[in-house]
Amino acid sequence: MATPASRSERVYHQDYIARIRYANPLPPPPNGPKLLDIPNTGLTSGQYTSASFASRMAREQPINIEADAELGMPIDLVGMPGIFDGDESSIQAPAQPPPMDPRDRALLRPLSSLGKPTAITSGVSFLRRTEYISSEQGRSRFESTTSSGLVRSTGHAKPKRKLLDESQDDPMNILRSVLKGFDLANPEEAYTGGDDASGNVRRAVITQAEREAWNKPKHPTKKKLTMVESYPVLPDLDAYPDSGGYIVTKFATNPMAESDTYDTRLDVGLLRPLPLAPDYVENLNAQSAAHGADPSKPAPGPPHHDYEYFLPLSEADVGNIQRKFDVDDPQRDDPNLYASTMKHNQEPCFNFKRVRAYETVSATASSLFEEVAVVLHDPKDSGKRLQKAAYYYPIMQKSQIRPRRTTKLTFGLSQSQRQEEEADRIDYLNVTVGEPSPDESRARSNARASYDVEFEVET
Question: What's the pLDDT at 410?
């Protein structure tokens, strides 16, 4: 028979938890209750338990509030510009909200992010852990109370030496990490020195794991996938317009009649902007001047144009129109690509027919390179002008347009002005494709110089 000392038993450690309750009685009120002498019928009427008893008392007792005719909120409409002319824009919310102060962003945090952070622990859902919830993700087991553990838990341990660039949110650490990515992609141009007065910044250290990840990229979650092809991300500076970016326009409804086939004329459609009304332009200039004098006032935003939409007469002209805009096509200057000629000078052209007029529903401006359009280019499949890369093009504005209603008064145009505009409208366009003028080339050069520091502006 084995003795208890020789019997092999597993020892379980369990902490003792004691609940201690403290009495915290409230002190008596310093003064006695204040009784109000309210005349009523008393308890003999038997009405004190009904709702009408309290309602009658509330009507008979005067309200101890001095309220004036404006209820403490005087509204003076004299100082509101244009309020007596029917313009209520000064008392309405602005179409473009004012810029938010960075210090106020913390006030817009969701309610779920407020309070102490809690650790999401995995385990049995119906068991409650008998310890306080900690924000440390690494602490997932019980530990016995020892002298070393007590020192660690109370925070009296010897502080460790702070490492360089420990905070990932440090701007200098972010800059070093970004430059490290460029050095990893272009090792022949990597900077190996330290910080100096000329602006060179020391790069973060490239680990061996990062080099292997760059040489043999893998999908972060789907390990079985292999990379078939890669494209460097580059700007196509020669294609940037004089405005510095492109405008993305979305139709609220289908611009063509319903059909089972796609109309390829939509790929080369033209939007002709109509002149803005003088009153609307004057209002935009006033808002822009007010915003320039006081940046706290909302910016006017992009103008809301009306457009006329034109399409080619035939789908057979779509291919030739696209060839005229293809800079890699050696025959793009061939006059035989045009489908028609002008009547007054017999010059070749493309004929476009007006479809309908559109009005802008919404227009939002984007900051520089906040949104871009990316195009994958391979010289084997298209022209040789550019190398193989994924080229990005900045989007400066996004607009949504819808068919314009003739009865709606927008942007200062009256019904008679709209009818006069309809009488003078253009039904057909004769379009020719040519090189930009000197003024247009100069404007594009100035726009490119703001992106490319090595580009020389044309004079």
Answer: 47
Q: How far apart are the first and last CA of the chain?
A: 108
Half-sphere exposure of 400 (CA within 13 A, CB side): 6
The pLDDT value recorded for residue 126 is 44
Record the tokens describing residue 448, joined without a space.
């490119």
Residues of the chain with pLDDT under 70: 1-8, 38-39, 41-46, 65-67, 115-168, 382-383, 406-419, 421-422, 458-459
Q: Which amino acid would we find at residue 400?
A: Q
- What pLDDT is attached to residue 1? 45
- To the question of pTM greater than 0.85 for the whole model, the response is no
Enumerate residues 6+ apart whose C-beta is below 8 A from 90: 80, 81, 82, 83
For residue 340, list its beta bridge partners: 349
pLDDT at 135: 40
pLDDT score of 310: 95
Type of residue at 180: K
Sign of CA dihedral 129, 134, 136, 139: negative
